[in-house]
Each structure stands twice: as C-alpha cells, then as structure tokens.
Amino acid sequence: MSKTGDIEGVGTLSQKLSSYYQFITRSGAAEVPLSAEYRHAMDYCDIQRIRFSNRIRIDAAALPEACGSIQAPRLIIQPIIENAFEHAFDSEPGRGYIRILASCAMDRLVISVEDDGRSLTDDSLSKLKTRLADVWSASETTGLINVARRIVLHYGEGSGLTVSRSELGGLKAEIVILPNDSRRTADV
Fold first, then answer.
1. Are strands 56-60 and 160-165 parallel, antiparallel or unpaired?
2. Given this model, what pLDDT does residue 183 score?
3. What DSSP string describes 91-131?
C-alpha cells in the first residue's frame, strides 16, 4: 500500500491493527463487555477487507445496545469470522460476501456469521455438526470447537455454537448465549 502511495489506506490499516493488537494484549482479563468483543471482531473485518483488496463484502449489523454490557469470554466472535475467511474465501478467486447479524432478547443472544463460500460440502457440514453436538468428546481443541467449549463453560448448557447451511450458500455459524445466570447483567 505504501509502495502504491495509498497513504490513507496505510493510515487506516495501521489504526485497525493497533486497535486489534491492543484488544489482545492490553488486558489479561478473561471476560470483556460484549460491546468490546464485537468491536474487536469488526476491526478484524476491516483488516481483512484491506487484505482482500475489498473483494470481500461484509455487512455487519450493529450490536443491540441492550447486549453490550453482557460479560463475554474474550475472542469468541473473531474466530468465527476468521473461519469464514480461511475456509470460504482463501482458496476461491473472485468476490465473497459475509453477513453478521446480532439479536438480543431478554433470555437469548444470537450472533450469526454467514458466508457465500462455495467450498462447503454437505459431508463436511455434517461432520462439523456432529463434532459441535458433543464438544466435550471432540478431540479437536482449536477453532470452532474451542469457541463452542468456551461458550458452554461460561454460560452453561443451552448456550454454544451451531452451524447450518446459509441461505447464501456457505456456512452459517451461530453463537447462542443464554445469559440468565449469575454472570447476566442487570439491564438485559
């Protein structure tokens, strides 16, 4: 970017990278407000937009204000988005699309990440669903399984990560949080 004289782009990338790394390194806290976790995920999206030279379109809904103060484990949203970039677009030339939605009701928060990647087979989706159905017996400890385990540990049974075929054609991953235990904030 600097070689082509895109000074504004270099500035934007530097700012997003700074924010991204500050989130990861500034505090050792295991929990953060969901608004900070979501903002971190949006910084990651902006970095990836630049990386993919804007050939990936991302539509991200705002996090409902009522959910922002819910305490969440660090790094539960960004890995789901990273999965879309790694598995849906890295090996595919051309354009791509990611949609991120968030909804919050009194007893349920859902954050969904969908992509239009064409590499997801029915067999691989079925295997992923099986591993996520019982995250404790899965031997894998990285990526989606790790996030699912952390969500269940933090919020209890009923919370977790589910996957399905997106209406966009690729994967739809949904973080489901039932924040109705002692960690639930008063305003939710």
1. unpaired
2. 42
3. T--S-EEEEEEEEEETTEEEEEEEE--S---HHHHHHHHHH
